[in-house]
Design brief:
The protein is α/β, with parallel strands linked by helices and about 280 residues long. The protein folds into two domains: about 80 residues, Orthogonal Bundle (434 Repressor (Amino-terminal Domain)), CATH 1.10.260.40; about 140 residues, Endonuclease, Chain A (2-Layer Sandwich), CATH 3.30.870. The chain has twelve helices and six strands. A hairpin with a 4-residue loop joins strand 5 and strand 6.
């Protein structure tokens, strides 16, 4: 007799996905191998997803929706996959993304890495490959993160584009990620970004030393109603803040940072030098 693992859909979004998959399959009296043949996966893969031993991917979820007729519905497996994906993001980040997609003005600062909105696919892939090598992501999850970043960037292409202001610590352009060719294309992307009509790009050079007010990522969003919110991250969590008493000091510090940073023309010149490999 085959032992069927009991599922607890309340334990996590991933467990809920697995329980829904088993329920939908059994409602049609399909064995795991029969469903697997229709979606192009193995029966072992179906079993692993149902029991929560393997997370579903976007491609797998969309294939299930086609087979079960859930595409574009509130019950779609793709929507359930999105809940799992958001559950793996830092606290506050999914909500931040929703606000970013409608912001009238976006101000970014980062240290050591180019912000996601300005990353090329190759640069983003190199970062995610590092997570795979460390065992914190599967290759499929890394690929989906890169696809998701592309969707995030596309969301900013609107009839009225937001104003995007970016200040990068000099380490962002000096830190080699993905090799020389990847960095060359990434630096070229920064120069293209600076040339757009609704953008500003500045470098905070090493020389400003202790006058740099931030030591980690800081994002500031101005919404259409002119309200401002901040988003900051540590290694383990993110925080979206709407309280004016805590947001205003960050806005003030950002203005001070811009005053210390190089002008856009000077910043582009430095990026060009780094891109060409000149000191």
């Amino acid at each position: 007799m085959v032992n069927i693992k009991e599922l607890n859909p309340d334990s996590s979004p991933q467990a809920a996905f697995g329980a829904r998959l088993r329920s939908a399959r059994e409602a049609r009296s399909w064995k795991q191998d029969e469903l697997a043949a229709q979606v192009g996966y193995s029966g072992r893969h179906i079993s692993a997803v149902e029991t929560g031993r393997k997370p579903p991917t976007l491609r797998f979820s969309r294939a299930l929706d086609v087979i079960f007729g859930f595409t574009g519905t509130a019950d779609s497996f793709e929507r359930a996959w999105g809940e799992i994906r958001n559950g793996s993001l830092l606290e506050g980040f999914p909500e931040y993304l929703g606000q970013e997609a409608r912001a009238a003005e976006i101000r970014l600062f980062d240290v050591g890495v180019i912000p996601g909105l300005l990353q090329t696919p190759e640069y983003a892939s190199a970062i995610e490959a590092g997570h795979v090598k460390r065992g914190t992501l599967t290759p499929e999850q890394a690929s989906e993160r890169v696809e998701f970043l592309a969707e995030r960037q596309t969301a900013l292409v609107r009839r009225t584009s937001p104003i995007v202001i970016v200040v990068l610590d000099e380490s962002c352009i000096r830190r080699l990620i993905g090799g020389a060719d990847v960095m060359e294309r990434q630096l070229a992307r920064l120069i293209e970004f600076a040339d757009q009509p609704d953008t500003t790009l500045q470098l905070a050079p090493y020389a400003i030393g202790e006058r740099r007010p931030f030591n980690r990522l800081v994002n500031l969003l101005t919404l259409p109603d002119r309200s401002v919110m901040s988003y900051v991250e540590s290694e383990t969590n993110g925080q979206l803040d709407r309280e004016i008493t805590s947001v205003l000091p960050l806005v003030r510090a950002y203005h001070q940072l811009q005053a210390e940073a190089l002008s856009q023309a000077e910043s582009v010149a430095v990026i060009e030098q780094v891109r060409k490999g000149t000191p």
